[in-house]
Amino acid sequence: MGGKYIVLLLVPVFFLAPLTANPALTTTTTCHRQIRVLKATLSPQDSSNMELFFFISSGSSSSSKKGVHANGKTDGKVVEAAAGDGPVLVELFSSQGCATSPAAELLLSRLGRGNFQLDTPFIVLAYHVDYWDYMGWKDPYGSSLSTVRQKAYVEALRLDTMFTPQVVVQGRAQCVGNDEDTLLSTISSAPRFPAPSFQANFQRPTSESLQVTLTGALRSKVDNNGVNVMVALYENGLVNDCPAGENRGKVLSNDFVVRKLEKLCTVKDISTKKTVSGTATFTLWDGFNSDRCALAVFVQNSSHQILGSQKFELPNDL
């Protein structure tokens, strides 16, 4: 069995002194709850390499600075989004099991409502990770796929740790999710790219699924290294009580929560005007309401940098 395998293990640790002596162990002082990353290379019998990463958490969750917490069928409806200078993609990694994430969620909700005077257009997405679920409250929107996505950014940005709340802007810069000044300046200074010129055709093949077909140009030249065109279905206005964990007794409000993320297609070596087409199908959740949902499309290269993004509101009668 060939190839490279990544295994993620979340292990609560109650004593750390023996670990810190290991030269393969790196640590960060970003927050009181530190995530230490241990990397070991194994040699299976088939001589292929296996990399094993241990993400180990310990201690208090509160931050000493900005509050970082480490780790039936319908007819098709066609929607066209305006083309032009593309928005900046702002991705929050958060958890209802993190005491410092609600402040970041509120900040991103205010950002989405237009409470800040920014000249830069943007799209906000919030991914709920699952690596704090063991601490007493299982995030109802948490996903291992969100954790994997955050880990990819940690590696691409050459960071030492995963933490919540974290914001990644255009796949190129990151900051603590509740650091308002740094967040706004990072968005304002982010590079921008032409927005794709997709048209979206929405259908409901079944009552439990949503299908979107996107056709248009990426409006950015793509070389042989290729890009992935990703489609995120997200939901606003989510409110729930939290009876346990670090946010025990609080009412939590979440917007821009990514409920589903699919790859539309992979594109290589095309011009800015060449037409691209693909279809993504989403399995819907109980209580799906199109009035609270929207779609974000973004182009991402192999270095995880965002090269263009576009947003679609869902038809009201979908």
Automatic annotation (TrEMBL):
Pfam annotation, one family: DUF1223
Record SUPFAM superfamilies: Thioredoxin-like
Keyword Protein biosynthesis: no
Keyword entries, A-Z: Signal
Leader peptide range in chain numbering: 1-21
Gene3D superfamilies: Immunoglobulins
Keyword Lyase: no
Protein name: Uncharacterized protein
Naturally occurring in which organism (per UniProt): Hibiscus syriacus (Rose of Sharon)
Lineage start: Eukaryota, Viridiplantae, Streptophyta, Embryophyta, Tracheophyta
